[in-house]
Amino acid sequence: MSLRVYRDVFPLAQVFTIARGSRTEAVVVRVEIERDGAIGRGECVPYARYGETVESVTREIDQLPSRITRETLQVALPPGAARNAVDCALWDLEARQTGIPAWQRAGLHHLRPELTAFTLSLDDPERMQQEAARQSHRPLLKIKLGGEGDVARIEAVRRGAPDSRIIVDANEGWTVEAYKELAPVLVRLGVEMVEQPFPAGEDDALRELERVLPVCADESCHDRTSLPDLEGKYDMINIKLDKTGGLTEALALKKQARAEGYRIMVGCMVGSSLAMAPAVLVAQGAEITDLDGPLLLASDREHGLRFDEQGVHPPPSALWG
Question: pTM to 2 decimals?
């Protein structure tokens, strides 16, 4: 078995801004695992918020033993981007060697398109209203907030897209005072959910605050070990494969979170269709799907995912799985 690691760069269609900063390109790590003539592929997005870089992720992967399985991988690497790319490549490899699609191996009965959110990045209210108007044909918009002026921003977005469903993502950018100011405004404007209002590790206030709309854990939820600390604070969790460390743990997290009463959101970092493809399996039946990464790129990979009015479609076998 041989394992190869590549660095790929995808220019974005436009500048993408969240509370922590802006970017003009998506830099991803692609893994290829070859065994007996078959090649499996996976992709991850190293995330600085979690102390990851392309170099650090590559080092983690390069240190793996020459023969690795999905089972031994869960012990060999911690949850995170590096394990994600290798885990998804192994799922793809297994599908190609056995002829059994990944969705069947995951225990799913079928795959269907899932309606996905489209993300509007953080900007001044006027520009956000203009972008909302351009994207108002989309049924679900995810709005990046996280700073002074958020009331004006979300009101501008609602003016631009009066008929779209809206969810918001604060990216850990609010204080308790900001939450108290914004929550009734969000309810008045018909916002359906707020994602990660407070910094991870500093979110105990959610146990005392009235949650007038559902609150979703993103940075506060990585894998199954995160769940005990979420009790009484969150109504929903955002499952991202770059946080769980791959499809294997993502499926297990979804099952356990469901059993504990959480609603499910399946999200992504900004990457190509290769990164989104395995997440489509996790998104089956989720309350919210946010797998719009390829829509934010100037151009995607060959055999990319199909997006239309039904949402994001299952991956073609030429891409993954």
Answer: 0.96
